[in-house]
Amino acid sequence: VQLVESGGGLVQPGGSLRLSCAASRDILEMVTMGWYRQTLVHERELVASVSNSGSSTYGDFVKGRFAISRDGSKNTLSLQMSNLQPEDTAVYYCRAKPRCVSAFWGQGTQVTVSS
């Protein structure tokens, strides 16, 4: 599975961004799809994920600011982020977990929150 993220960039504190992940395969076949983030000083952590049943999970730090969604017709996973703060600065990665094989990762997209 090839995953290509887009939508990262520079945003001011309190601003919003929408990340997208285009997949080369049917995302509805995946056991889970999700967004993770990583910084130079922190290990990669879960931001949000959605299962094939449609249930979603969020990292504790999200606190209602982000929303994950998927579009099966376009094989696209999205992450709408609002009220972004400097501590949200990180590289954001898309992950797809098919059945019976290891997960696939995208190349990442940089999100920088700064005034």
Describe this structure in words.
- This protein has 115 residues and is an all-beta fold.
- The protein is built from no helices and eleven strands.
- It has strands spanning 3-6, 9-11, 17-23, 32-38, 45-51, 56-58, 66-71, 76-81, 90-97, 104-105, 109-113.
- The strands form two sheets. Strands 2, 4, 5, 6, 9, 10 and 11 form a seven-stranded mixed beta sheet that branches.
- A hairpin with a 4-residue loop joins strand 5 and strand 6.
- The termini are far apart.
Residue share in helix: under 10%
Summed up, the helix count is 0
Low-confidence stretches: none
How many DSSP-defined strands? 11
Q: Percent of residues in beta strands?
A: over 45%
Average residue pLDDT: 96
Structural class assignment = mainly beta
Distance between the termini: 36 Å
Biggest sheet, in brief? Answer: 7 strands, mixed
> Radius of gyration from the CA trace?
13 Å
